[in-house]
Write a structure and sequence with these properties.
binds pyridoxal-5'-phosphate, TIM Barrel
Length: 243
């Protein structure tokens, strides 16, 4: 049974606690804790606190708004060994600014969007790593490919030479109870497994981005490789803030 954990005002304490708890959950699940990347979700968190997080060992930051991310990237240029991930919806007119600025885009939600990214990456002479966001629960408020659209789209990704699909991402329906998320996590893992059997050349299915503050331990048990944790590290955000 997973209990909610206290959030202290010390970022360092929080990072230590979350890291330990990922570690424990991994060992209990017979997994190597090294196989799980903690992405610190820093939306609405000021740059100075990212510095503290970096000092306490965080190396990957996840942002969901481009402008906010750009400002922090700018003011934290001096930090070494930092990786930025984009985890939010990418608006059509922002695609060209997102491509090339983030090591991983978690939230690609349509073929059309991916094609536009491929084109911009081609223009820049780079290859962009992406995850396909899958709306496993089918909630109308959530973005992402439906499971069947994702599966049907895969052959198209083989033809895009400047984006590389590394795996899948999902956001389960919000719930007080972290166990609610488990079947969605499991389904995403099984989907990735199914895709792997198809032996695509370019498309990789080695990464699963699932698990947030409330349910990252459940996600670890279900095979996640990337957890996206905000509140458990930085405290509660402004309540109007939506994901
Ligand atoms: C905000 C956000 C998170 C982090 O949520 P917490 O519950 O604060 O850990 C994770 N993933 C996405 C896509 C988000 O927008």
């Amino acid at each position: 049974m997973v209990k909610p954990e206290p959030v202290s005002c010390s970022i360092t304490d929080n990072i230590q606690r979350v890291t330990q708890s990922i570690h424990q959950a991994a060992l209990l699940a017979g997994r190597d804790p090294q196989d799980i990347l903690l992405v610190a979700v820093t939306k609405t968190v000021v740059a100075e606190r990212l510095r503290h997080a970096h000092a306490a060992g965080i190396r990957t930051f996840g942002e969901n708004r481009l402008q906010e991310a750009q400002q922090k990237q700018e003011s934290l240029q001096d930090l070494v060994d930092v990786s930025w991930h984009f985890i939010g919806q990418v608006q059509r007119r922002k695609i060209k600014d997102v491509v090339g600025q983030f090591d991983l885009i978690h939230s690609v939600e349509s073929l059309e969007q991916a094609r536009a990214m491929d084109k911009h990456a081609d223009d820049m002479g780079i290859t962009q790593d992406i995850l396909l966001q899958v709306n496993v629960s089918g909630e109308s408020t959530k973005g992402g490919f439906s499971s069947s659209d994702m599966l049907n789209a895969l052959p198209e990704f083989e033809r895009m030479m400047h984006v590389t699909v590394r795996g899948l991402m999902t956001i389960p329906p919000w719930s007080e109870d972290c166990e609610t998320a488990r079947p969605y996590f499991r389904e995403l893992r099984e989907m990735a497994h199914t895709v792997k059997q198809r032996d695509f050349q370019r498309t990789k299915m080695d990464e699963l981005s699932m698990g947030m503050s409330r349910d990252y331990r459940v996600a670890v048990e279900e095979g996640t490789t990337i957890v996206r944790v905000g509140t458990a590290l930085f405290g509660t955000r402004n309540p109007v803030e939506k994901i």
